[in-house]
Structures are given as structure tokens and as C-alpha cells.
Amino acid sequence: MADEFLTVYECAKEYNEGTIEISKFESELHRLILERDKLIKLCENTRIPANQYTCLRNMTINRQFLIDLKSHIKSGGKKPEINIFEFGEYLSYVSKFLR
User: Fold this and answer.
1) Integer Cα distance of 72 and 20 in angstroms
2) Which of 44, 68, 84, 88 counts the most CB atoms within 10 A of its CB?
């Protein structure tokens, strides 16, 4: 998860500075979403006792954040400024429900 956060943080920083294209940021988000899906499936299959629900819930919330951020970038039209610390504006109804 720390790697995931660092990747999103670095991509947002580089995107805001103009050193990477939006397509690179989108592809990194897509890669992280796919990795998150694989991790969720692994946790579902290994049947982690007691903590399983909390673990899966937290992973699902994080996955939805990545999807919301990717959707925000796509729908931004012009180049949107990305601030992952002020993520409230990116959240969908699904994210708000899951939180």
C-alpha cells in the first residue's frame, strides 16, 4: 500500500509539474487498480480469519479511490490540477458510501 501511495503521489506531482503526460498517469492508475483487484482476490481465496472483512473493505475503498481519481482525470477536459491530499472532490457516491 505504501508503494501504491508513493506511485500515485509521484505521478500526481510529475503530472502537475508537466513532466509526464496524462496517459502515463492514467496507465499507472490502471496498473494499480489491476494489482488491487488481484490482491483482493487473493485475500478472498485465502480466507483470512477475523480480519477478512475489514481487510477486504479497506482494499475496496482504496480501489474505488483509484477509480475515482482516474475518472476525475479523464473528465477534467483541460489539464486538471491533482492534489491527492484534497481528495474529497474526486470521490464518487460509491466511495462516499464505502467510507
Assistant:
1) 17
2) 68
